Structures are given as C-alpha cells and as structure tokens.
C-alpha cells in the first residue's frame, strides 16, 4: 500500500468543505451549481444508461458522480489560482488584515 502514497492526493474533508463553500458563493457562477444539480438529477432518474444487474447499472451513476467531482475540483483549482493572483482572503493583499489593524 505504501507505493501508492504520494502519487495522487486523496480527497479529504477540507476539499469537500471548500467545494461546498464554492457552491454557496454567489460569485462562483452557475456552472458549478448546474453540474451538481445535473448529477443529482441523474442519480434519482429511473432510467440508466447501463440497465440490468445492479453492479453494472451502478457504473454509470458512479461515472456521473466522478465526472461532477472532477469538474468541481477543476473549478476549485481555478478559484484558488484566482485568489492567489487577485489577493482575496485574509492575510493577502486586498483582504482583511488578520491582525485586525
């Protein structure tokens, strides 16, 4: 199991919290919210792209969720890069001073 460590970061709670914050932010745009809405609608939709036995029919649901997650992660990375360049947030130029001054 050690050989897989460090090759790719696993999604953690912090990343999920940042994704939720991204979705709540009014400046985030509609693409992120639309991706979540479409993925949720696909999950509850009675028709599947791969109908049949449950393990096979779950593959398309998992694929849609994974694609939505990858899209949200890309949106989050773009936002992080914009924050670094634009100086938003505490302790950065243009953001509130963490010392309170």
TrEMBL record:
Residue stretches of biased makeup (Gly residues): 88-101
Region annotated Disordered, chain positions: 79-101
Protein's UniProt name: DUF1232 domain-containing protein
Organism: Thermaerobacter subterraneus DSM 13965
